[in-house]
């Protein structure tokens, strides 16, 4: 009997030793129980009268899988954390974030007098290619150049800031996406949005996605968009060419308007620095050049001369509507783009002229 007990003990030890490596290679999620773990479970330490809770342990600076096993998280939380970890840099290898009040200048060379090739708006992201004590070589959107290191977050601070800033967008995956006033197919079609455009998401409601269309909240079918988290990128500052029917004043107006990229949208506002709405932005830009316009997109649409959208030159106005009613205005800046005060989240921005269906175009400058 005694021999039998000894053999059983030896066998148990051998089984335990064989099992240990197998358990060590199991992924951590398989070790987690389903449901919430008890943070208040006591961890009694040998030789001590008192007891320590898991919460006490978590308040220390301990790291590693041991902390994961006692954290107040569910299995679903860990799955989400894994997905977030995979995309922690949002596609960037060496993430940088613009730490400025308005826009960070991007220059062709690493010098303060270098030619301006773009602007990195406040909180926009970039790929940091290389950097020294003074300058960082970056790439963002379609812009490649140099920015001052004094105004660029990198490393852990950049990742932490990005967590706060990531915006959920719906990228259009069909040729002409119908934008509706309500979340049903019987609702009015407000406009059409082309493939590849990004719409900022307000909420996901079943099969429908509520998005911002300038300062309106509207709906698109979730079947025809891809929802993802994105960070803002740089804006190109390609200079408009003189000649080809483009007067100096048109070039000046467009370049002047670009100086206020990233500044806030404020309903009813006319300040290019403190905040303006769409018509207030247009009004204030043209005011500098001696042109007086009313503070209403519908009223501005009745000024000047109506032209075809395809005939628009830099400095002409492009109008957009909700159904058959004009409710938004932008300044055409050439290369198929407009600049406009879009909404409270994005402020003054550059968009493709067809980011939504243009309603009409008007020529204010008769040159």
Mean pLDDT metric: 78
Give me the number of helical elements.
9
Strand order of the largest sheet: 20-25-21-22-23-24
Number of E strands: 25
Just give the CATH class of the largest domain: Alpha Beta
The portion of residues assigned to helices is: 10-25%
CATH superfamily of the largest domain: endopeptidase domain like (from Nostoc punctiforme)
Biggest sheet statistics: 6 strands, antiparallel
Shape: globular
Kindly describe this structure.
The chain has 367 residues and is an alpha+beta fold. It folds into three domains: 95-165, SH3 Domains (SH3 type barrels, Roll), CATH 2.30.30.40; 167-230, SH3 type barrels (Roll); 238-363, Alpha-Beta Complex (endopeptidase fold (from Nostoc punctiforme)), CATH 3.90.1720.10. Helices cover 23% and strands 35% of the residues. It has nine helices and 25 strands. The strands form seven sheets. It has a six-stranded antiparallel β-sheet. It has a five-stranded antiparallel β-sheet with strand order 8-7-6-3-9, with helices on one face. A five-stranded antiparallel β-sheet has the order 15-14-13-10-16, with no helix packed on it. The longest helix has 23 residues, at 2-24. The N and C termini lie far apart (112 Å).
Quick structural gist:
This protein has 367 residues and is an alpha+beta fold. The chain is globular and about 55 Å long.
């Amino acid at each position: 009997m005694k021999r039998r007990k000894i053999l059983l003990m030896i066998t148990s030890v051998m089984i335990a030793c064989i099992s240990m490596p197998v358990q060590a290679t199991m992924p951590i999620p398989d070790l987690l129980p389903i449901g919430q773990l008890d943070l208040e479970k006591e961890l009694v330490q040998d030789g001590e009268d008192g007891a320590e809770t898991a919460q006490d342990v978590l308040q220390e600076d301990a790291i590693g899988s041991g902390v994961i096993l006692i954290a107040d998280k569910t299995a679903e939380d860990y799955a989400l954390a894994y997905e977030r970890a995979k995309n922690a840099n949002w596609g960037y290898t060496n993430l940088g974030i613009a730490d400025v009040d308005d826009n960070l200048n991007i220059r062709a060379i690493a010098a303060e007098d270098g030619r301006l090739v773009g602007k990195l708006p406040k909180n926009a992201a970039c790929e940091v290619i290389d950097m020294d004590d003074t300058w960082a070589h970056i790439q963002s959107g379609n812009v490649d150049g140099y920015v001052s290191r004094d105004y660029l977050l990198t490393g852990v601070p950049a990742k932490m800031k990005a967590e706060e800033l990531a915006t959920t967008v719906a990228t259009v995956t069909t040729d002409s996406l119908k934008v509706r006033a309500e979340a049903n197919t019987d609702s009015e079609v407000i406009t059409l949005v082309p493939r590849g455009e990004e719409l900022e998401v307000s909420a996901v409601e079943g099969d429908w996605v509520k998005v911002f269309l300038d300062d309106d909240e509207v709906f698109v079918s979730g079947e025809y968009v891809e929802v993802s988290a994105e960070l803002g990128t740089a804006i190109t500052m390609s200079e408009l060419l003189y000649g080809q029917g483009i007067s100096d004043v048109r070039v000046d107006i467009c370049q002047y308007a670009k100086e206020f990229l990233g500044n806030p949208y404020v309903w009813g506002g006319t300040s290019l620095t403190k905040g303006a709405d769409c018509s207030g932005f247009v009004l204030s830009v043209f005011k500098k050049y001696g042109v007086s316009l009313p503070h209403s997109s519908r009223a501005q649409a009745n000024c000047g001369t109506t032209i075809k959208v395809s005939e628009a030159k830099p400095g002409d106005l492009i109008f957009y509507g909700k159904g058959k009613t004009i409710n938004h205005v932008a300044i055409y800046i050439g290369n198929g783009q407009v600049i406009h005060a879009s909404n409270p989240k994005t402020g003054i921005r550059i968009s493709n002229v067809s980011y939504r269906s243009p309603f009409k175009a008007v020529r204010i400058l008769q040159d």
